[in-house]
UniProtKB/TrEMBL annotation:
CDD domains: MFS_YfmO_like. It is found in: Cell membrane. One of its GO terms (molecular function) is transmembrane transporter activity. InterPro entries: MFS, MFS_dom, MFS_trans_sf, Tet-R_TetA/multi-R_MdtG-like, YfmO-like. This is MFS transporter. Keywords: Membrane, Transmembrane, Transmembrane helix. The chain crosses the membrane at residues 12-32, 52-71, 83-105, 111-131, 138-162, 168-188, 209-230, 250-270, 277-295, 301-320, 341-357, 369-386. It is a multi-pass membrane protein. GO terms for cellular component: plasma membrane. SUPFAM superfamilies: MFS general substrate transporter.
Length: 412
């Protein structure tokens, strides 16, 4: 399972074109982080209302992902990618022109639709077009995620220091560049894929292996977005609410995600079972969020813990995706749509729930981090209890019954 970074980097130009667009797409997640306080102030919105910028984006992303394999199997991966990018360009620009927080929230929903078409298809396309096997392709994909998460807050901070609107226009421009790169460089085999049924991603949840990973990823993503979406508001009372400061803090966080997803995750999975890695890292991540709850009044501690959380999140992102893609014999596009769809729904739930707990129910910056601890431990428990369904991802031979079950669910 070990892959050298040098080998992973030897990819066709078409793969690099998709990876670049992935970086910009994932920038859209962290882009708004440094400007959340500014948006709340300028548009006279509460933290809970502002957190809906994540919710509508991720909710529509997650829901639409269940249908992306159906669409891409009919019009082709390249067209699906390009439609997704075009939708993002339009709605990112519209979000920058919105006159109210609810206008931005609505346009972020449209942005999420484009994001779903692009992200789900991009993962399956990178796996199919890359050299070096599935694990190497996933590492490259997760590296793009990490770089996007790192650069997004920094770009958001830099452009947000001019106006909260500028980062949205910047994203639209970068996505237009990604659209051009994929149009020019992506060359896929001229074969007609077998059409996927509209119900395939939902039926895929009948596969116990994929169901285990999808539900575990849902709770994991809740913990992920508690840290990402609530921390800026936790730093406001500590005087660290300007866009540039938050941009640098989350740049460090995203850089940590990128480094461990590329370099540390492969080292760990080369030495132990993938599920063991998950069962070690998830409790460690819960400890980080517990410390954030206990030290929420200490700005320096929060910054250090955010970056420490990024180191663990990078490992989790890569290994979770590897296990989900390799745990079944389902078609890649179906597995990717199902897993990604459920995972993003967790990200949609967490930001408003965290803000509601922290800003309304308990009026405490610590409460949302306690929520993060709980959901991360639930995720670990699901993987532990469902581990027998993940033998294939751990490189352990499946029984004939398990194999037949996986093939039966994926059959058309």
């Amino acid at each position: 399972m070990s892959h050298s970074p040098a080998g992973i980097l030897k990819q066709p130009l078409s793969v690099w074109a998709i990876a670049f667009a992935c970086v910009v797409s994932f920038m859209g997640i962290g882009l708004v982080d440094p400007i959340l306080p500014a948006i709340a102030h300028e548009l006279e919105a509460t933290p809970t209302e502002t957190s809906l910028l994540f919710t509508t984006y991720l909710l529509i992303t997650g829901a639409a992902m269940f249908f992306t394999s159906w669409l891409s199997s009919r019009i082709g991966a390249k067209r699906t990618l390009l439609i997704g990018l075009a939708v993002i360009v339009v709605f990112a620009a519209l979000a920058g022109m919105a006159g109210s927080v609810f206008g931005v929230i609505g346009f972020r929903a449209g942005w999420g639709l484009g994001n779903a078409l692009f992200i789900s298809t991009a993962l399956a396309t990178i796996i199919g077009a890359s050299t070096g096997g599935t694990a190497g392709a996933i590492i490259l994909y997760e590296a793009a995620l990490g770089v996007g998460l790192a650069v997004g807050p920094l770009v958001g901070g830099l452009l947000g220091s001019v106006s909260w609107r500028t980062p949205f226009f910047g994203t639209a421009v970068l996505m237009a560049v990604g659209f051009t790169a994929i149009t020019a460089l992506l060359r896929l085999p001229k074969t007609t894929p077998e059409p996927t049924r509209l119900s395939a991603p939902f039926r895929a949840l009948g596969n116990k292996s994929l169901l285990t990973m999808a539900v575990a990823a849902l709770f994991y993503n809740m913990g992920f977005f508690v840290l990402l979406a609530w921390t800026p508001f936790a730093l406001v009372p500590l005087g660290m609410d300007d866009a540039m400061t938050l941009g640098w803090i989350f740049f460090g966080w995203g850089l940590a995600v990128a480094v461990t997803s590329v370099f540390v995750a492969p080292l760990l999975t080369a030495r132990m079972r993938r599920t063991t890695v998950l069962l070690v890292v998830l409790p460690l991540l819960a400890v980080v969020e517990l410390l954030m709850a206990l030290l929420a009044a200490n700005g320096t501690a929060l910054i250090v813990l955010v970056v420490a959380g990024g180191l663990l999140l990078g490992v989790m992102n890569t290994v979770l995706t590897e296990v989900s893609m390799d745990a079944t014999t389902l078609p890649r596009s179906v597995a990717s749509s199902t897993y990604s769809g459920v995972r993003f729904l967790g990200g949609a739930i967490a930001p408003p729930l965290a803000s509601w707990l922290g800003d309304t129910v308990f009026a405490s910056t610590s409460a949302p981090f306690v929520l993060g601890v709980v959901v991360l431990l639930i995720s670990a428990a699901i993987i532990l209890l469902g581990r027998r369904h993940l033998l294939r991802a751990d490189g352990i031979e499946e029984t004939e019954v398990q194999t037949a079950e996986a093939i039966g669910v994926g059959a058309e």
